[in-house]
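Lay summary. Proteins are chains of building blocks that fold into shapes, and those shapes determine what they do. In this project we predict the shape from the chain. Here is one chain we studied, written as its sequence of building blocks.
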Amino acid sequence: MKKVRFALALAGWILVSKSSAISLDDIPLWTGSGTNRAALVIEWNSPEVFNGTTVPAPVANKTLVWGYRFNGSATGTQMFNAIVAANPQLYTVETADPFLGTGIQAIGFNLDGSGLSGVADGTVTNLANTFTNGILTNPSLNPDATYPLNAGDLFWSSDYNGPYWQIWTELGDGGGFTNSPNRGASPYFDPNTYNHGQWAYANFGIDDLPVTNGSWIGFSVAAAGYDSNTNDAAYNAFNNDEQAPPSPAGTYTAYVGNPNDFAVQIVSTNNVYTRSPYDDPTAVLGRPTLKFINAGTNAHRVKIVEAPFNVAPDGSKLITEISSGGQITVNLGRKIYDDPNNPYGIDLIVYGNSFFTASGYSGGAVSDATDLNAAVLNSAPGGHPTLVSVSQDGTNWFAYNPVAALFPQNAYRWDDANDAWTDEQMNPTKPLNPFIGTNNFAGQTVASALDQFSGAAGGTGFDLKASGLPWIQYVRVQPGAGTYTVLDAIAAVDPVVVGDALSIAPDNLAAGITNLFFQNPGNPSQNLIAVNFDSLSGVAQVSTAGLSEFSAFAPVIGKMSSAYQISLKPMTGTDAVNYVADIGLRAGGNYAGNGGDLRVYQWAGTGWASRAFQFHPANREVLVAGVTNLSAFVVSQIIPPQLSLKKITSGFAFQFTPVANCAHILERSTDLATWTPIFTNAPTGAQPVTLQDSNAPAGKAFYRVLLNP
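And here is the predicted shape, written in a compact code that computers can read:
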């Protein structure tokens, strides 16, 4: 039979990372106000079966979480509407049925921050201006053929024919969950109870779903499409392969594949291993390996304790062995520039097949079934001595010092809370902090080590600064003298943008790497946030997000130019990390002043505290020094009001456009030396204000408006 289901689009976003389950306290960005708290979790994932749909698979698998504050009780629709209206990056296509209520056909999220473009189905197109507060209602689109106009968006659309958006709620449907519900290690729900660990398949539509203090609502894409043929394997998949969302992802942006990020052509090669399947140099082209067949027919995820090996699930070759005296030279799909704003200054990443050994887990050889929360890393990773060289023209080369082994790689995110793998891919163009390995992973669980990757896929990074070359396009890989090495892939580094996270360790500071840069998703050459550490007591993760919704904060004074959330948490353990940092924030893209009309405010828990700053006009950046407790920051522009005067019967009337949420004092003087307040107000908006002076003195008088931000 066909299941009745209700779905909901989500808006607003924040990503958090923690080794245990995500708690309400871990969500830094909130919509709404009140003493009660609830959360929305949404997972974009590629369906296992594409029955009845031509919708393209999401560009990445990703799980995000949002917070909602309220008083009394609410419904899922109220929570959703408040959040979707607050975030311009997220959008939805809804239906409003008089019997079934609100239903969601599509949920999209704009990864690059450029905002909603629109959706189409090949016949009908709905541009952004047809959405109201991010919602398109009752369109004439075919939901099983709809796609986003921005191909890089996280997106899925469906109706009754294809895999649809499922709605889940916390077990018991009564709130009281401080932490995100744990779906457990089982990949699918229990068909007898419709439960998936602590998640329960919702019995109500979103309009009737109650939201109380500690409620969680989750969304995921059904594993398969509807099929009425009970003898069809897809029908069984539809009925049994339902999945609640995993714990929300770490604070990092999803990687959207680009073949030009990797090697695209073999320029030359010699002395490559002659035994299949490690004898094909072209195996090093493209992105690093995600899965491989070790033995039998089961696919294994690449992990730091199980390196790429043998062949891909489709039988293609994955890695290439370079014998003693040999080399492989490749041409990258684009120029790689020496960019000091790249994470840790790294511009190039090389992947091999190194791996750690582990112990302390049950079972035989490491596999996808190995419990990484129990498995403990042993000593340094095994690998092969490797020499990497770079060139602009393929003729003149700079050789880096040989490395004893390329660092192990990891293809997918491990969900600590649910003790299971997810299908979220780590970012192969995001470099690993080169100094987290110096804190000795040996003795840590594999899960703890992976937490410190902050979304990176591993590998060994190289900084072009050492070469003296402003850019390169050719890379050569050779084994160390008298031995061999193994090559999987070569990647260019992409900028880390606002919405992402990076790790920082005391060893970074000792090496002079004190700055973390987060760039504009819509213009990756433009820095929006810079965090420069003066001191740091432990390994930490710095997370960032753009702020566009302020209902959880006190009113902001003036015209907001830019706003960001910056947070820092320990990467391991629970001990607080002490730090002193200088924060650089770019003013809004339209700001062209000299900084004199700007103010910087930092959230202090109950209100905004004004912070002293320096302004650097060359990059429109304000610099706040000596920050010891990162939080939300607002760069606000104070535009002085202009007074207009009109003579009235009893005196004078003055009109001006105020600065929102700022105290304004109308003052009068007869000598320009002594000023008398005659009216004070603090408007919450920027609508024109009219004030009167009915007791104007005889003769001359001077008037001014004094601002007190």
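What the prediction tells us: The CA atoms of residues 431 and 456 lie 6 Å apart.
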